[in-house]
Amino acid sequence: MLYIGEDWEAFIMLRSLKDLENFSLHDKDGEIGKIENFYINAYEWKVRYVVIDLETWQEGRRALLSTVALEKPIESEKAIPVSLTRDMLKSSPEIDVQKPITRQEEINLHNYYEWPFYWEGAGLAAYPLAQMASDVNEKLTAQEDQNDPHLHSFSDLVGYTLQARDGEIGKVDDFIVEDENWNVDYLVVETGGLLDNRKVLVSPSWVKDVQWVESRLLIDLARETIKNSPEYNDSIQMDDDYESKLDDYYKRNRP
Questions:
Q1: Is the model's pLDDT at 82 over the cut of 80?
Q2: Is 100 in contact with 151 (CB distance < 8 Å)?
Q3: Domain edges within the chain
């Protein structure tokens, strides 16, 4: 795990999304739900939403929350505090998380919680959301008409084929993210066969294209470069030494 900052509250930790799926969300009164999935914008490689199961107090209900509502995870409790209330969740817009999330659904959600429209840039955060809604709606609807899904669920992305410059090299197994800004720092790739579950890390910045229909990521690296990179497993501590080793390897072997 990587820590950044001078005090504990400022530390940024690198975390596996598979590990975070074991966490629950808590408000000031206790647990409000368990994490079930994540939605990722694969054009900017950032986790934008979490899907939470509200089964314990709203049977059959799932809710979508922006990562801006999440505070830092508490490792010892496997919990993530949230800056909202049960009443807010209960009255929130219902979204079918089994279907692709549309921009209009995002607008409704962000208007309800008064979250900024991340897709319009940080500069718009200072404007009233109601004032912006009508202006951005036309633009976002045009994007929807292009059939270009901008958000993809973590559970769908796991298992995608990784295609190197010279052929297939493995499958996406997990994502490593920063728990402060929810950037995806690494893709965990399973390169081994049936008898070898070797895993390695690659940067999403090297992904040059995503073929959604074929469930394939095209990466600008050679197969051997990926195959021979430092091994990763769940017990490895993602600290400065490991990241330096990884960075040095790719600097030497990525033409």
A1: yes
A2: yes
A3: 11-152, 156-253
